Amino acid sequence: MAVRVQTQDFDIAAEIAALTSDRTDIGAVVTFTGLVRGQASGHDLVSMTLEHYPGMTEAELEAVEAEAHARWPLQASLIVHRVGELQPGANIVLVITASPHRQAAFQAAEFLMDYLKTRAPFWKKETFAGGQSAWVDAREADATAVERWTRSPS
Amino acid sequence: MTATTEITLRYFAWIREKTGLAQERLTLPPTVETVADLLAWQATRGPEFADAFAKPGIIRAAIDQRHVKPATTLVGAREIAFFPPVTGG
Questions:
Q1: B85 and A138: CB-CB below 8 Å?
Q2: CA nearest A1: which of A84, A87, A72?
Q3: CB half-sphere exposure, A4, CA atoms < 13 A
Q4: Given CB atoms, is A123 within the 8 Å cutoff of chain B?
Q5: How many domains does chain A contain in total?
Q6: ipTM value greater than 0.85
Q7: Range of the domain at A24
């Protein structure tokens, strides 16, 4: 289990290798990567700036990761989230889950992303061609997505 | 309770921009007992704060870096943060 908040980019292959090297018990690795889209609401995006609440962000990510490990038989996991100014096409977030079988790894990765998007204190500000900028509004769909996990799994 | 104790208030995203502050230290009036009380009091602190806290229903709060509800008491709080609904991921 690990979480990292950082300005620098991440290398997906290197992160997978770090999780799986020197072990033969892992049967499934799932990764999710979120990227900056070049368009928002029909406008060309110049950059996206991510602000966070240092300390609370890491605590929330660790809590959701621990919850995923309590719900599914995970053998390893990683959450990396970037902050600062990012250009279209850049990586924003990486989630990796590893388990003996694929179902737990798939479900846990989705769970981690759904909870991260509704609980971890990050805020996106978009800057558009022409210079205007705006904070991104929270999406109702993200709140709905997290509700499907509220049932007790065990 | 917190009435005579200095606490840290922190602001993020557009609340930080509207108040012009990332954080401050102050002593809350004794009438401010809950998160909802503090949201209402913030809106009385001048035009920047009135603007930032005009819609308390959409503002989220954390006490000592944990999410809290409007009815949560401020007793024992050392750091209270206000921010918009989160948009990471």
A1: yes
A2: A72
A3: 15
A4: yes
A5: 1
A6: yes
A7: 3-147
